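Margin note: ligand = magnesium ion.
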Amino acid sequence: MKTSIATVSVSGELPEKLAAIARAGFDGVEIFDADFISTAYSPRDVGKMVRDAGLELTLFQPFRDFEGLPEPFRTQAFERAERKFDVMGELGADLMLVCSSLSPHALPGLERAAADFRELGERAAKRGLRVGYEALAWAPLIHDHRDAWEIVRRADHPAVGLILDSFHTLSRGIPVESIASIPKEKLFIVQLADAPKLQLDYLSWSRHFRNMPGQGDLDVLGFMRNVQATGYDGVISLEIFNDQFRSGSARSVAVDGKRSLIYLMDQLRAGKTAASATVAQPVALPPKAEVKGVEFIEFAVSKADATELESLLRALGFHIAGRHRSKDVALWRQGGVNLVLNKDPEGFAHSFYINHGPSVCAVGLAVDDAKAVAKRAESLMAEPFMQAVVQGELEIPAIRGIGGSLIYFIDDKSNLKDLWSVDFHAEPEAAGQGAMVRQIDHMSYSTEYDEMLSWILFFTSIFNVDKLPGQDIADPVGLIRSQVVQTTDGALRLALNGAQSMRTLAGRFIEEFFGSGMQHLALATADIFAAGRRIKANGLDLLPIPKNYYDDLVARFQLSPALIEQMSECGIMYDRDEVGEYFQLYTKTFDDRFFFEIVQRHNYSGFGAPNAPVRLAAQTRFARNLAVPKH
Ligand code: MG
Ligand code: MG
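Resulting structure:
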């Protein structure tokens, strides 16, 4: 099965688009008429450019307002088509997409449209060309692929076929089972696009909000299962109109597109029945990674700024549990949480530090089979990472994740399970007060707004995680788009916060950090009140939360005055859902960037989103050094 993408899907001038598309590994490209018209290259040069890039020209599109016209418009439409056939001849394109008519002159009637297509097919065939008919979701007469198919069937010409586009079918809720009975040789090309569920007219929805399969809410997989049932083995092409993609990086949009198709084909293969045939890719990927937990989080720091982080960790109840055998790296531990502080003047962490300052440079995930996960990730176009290790130390499989940070994979199938004893020697634990936190609850990343869809596809395609519905959260100086991906059991919970304004906390983080990265780490405790008191007694400031918030809590949840009093002492915030309760507190943000959160979760499945605007305002006051009035 061949993959293709329309030039309209990626940004830039035509040569840049073609280079990005070829580099991402597509087999072919659809030339979008507007991209062709606006280029200064001749049709022959464009055709040559496509072939020189190693691409096949899969489709020339669109040709509009063709069928159902009375004279003199009908004759004019055929003349327009002949001129486009001339262009196609020079381009070296053999298939033209005709989309259903929006013309106010067009008359209804399947037979009339079929007659028009029979004649168009005749003219195309004389030149060795073919035409495919596509029903646009917003067209007044033909907006259902079943009607378009009926016209193609009645046209009954070998040079006339049907073009399916998942957006047009799925946006209108047309039953996808109707596809399975279409003869595969009459399907000339299949275009794919996903989209978020929105209350919008079809045209605006399609023109601005399409995204890659797996990034939206449409059942593109169900659509493709029915295409697969026809035995179709032609081109699968992405046609993505998206304002964000058009202004983004051509390269990363093309890579996302290719990744989405590899993932889709893998899902098709997994669900393949003996009767359905050939769409899926020939080689199966290793299964989606089951994440069992977060094994460690690694901070890149210099010797100088390690002191601040170390005293913060100490105040949060962590102690040094091990030191690396060959590097200036310490393991800080508490309960089941391992934090690695890397001060080594060489290696990946150090170069990450040079680029980003003190920061989280890597996360180690406990998975079922580390090698298999790395292989799946690489098959899905993740960038593998290898670091030189001293003999006797472990080579841990890793890939690049958000902002170029690393994701390591650790399993207990191999010697990776002995990581802490092989690479580290243990430090005796001083008698302490016992752990106040037990495990990592969630990790929160600030990302560029237009990277969010990429990372969602990255995580959902590699790992067995679900994405929760996105939410908009008010920061005092702009909106933040928040989206969570997580495993069903909560072993991995990632919150991605996309900053639309650089003035928001997430935006300031990205500016100072020079890119996307982890901004806070939430640790789970069994007793947040004890934890809050102990952290304060250790001399660490917690984020103060205003009295108005607590007055509102009383009104919303009827909490006792004694409980409210205890909460406000440590800046503890509260939320509740149908089944559970959630308590959360925050350390002050150091350097206007990283902070810790402590949470206590009782069957609660959210992240305290209603509290986020209050917390963000408190953090902004802190960052600006504004006084907190007493009342
Ligand atoms: Mg289309
Ligand atoms: Mg949080």
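The chain is about 35% helix and 25% strand.
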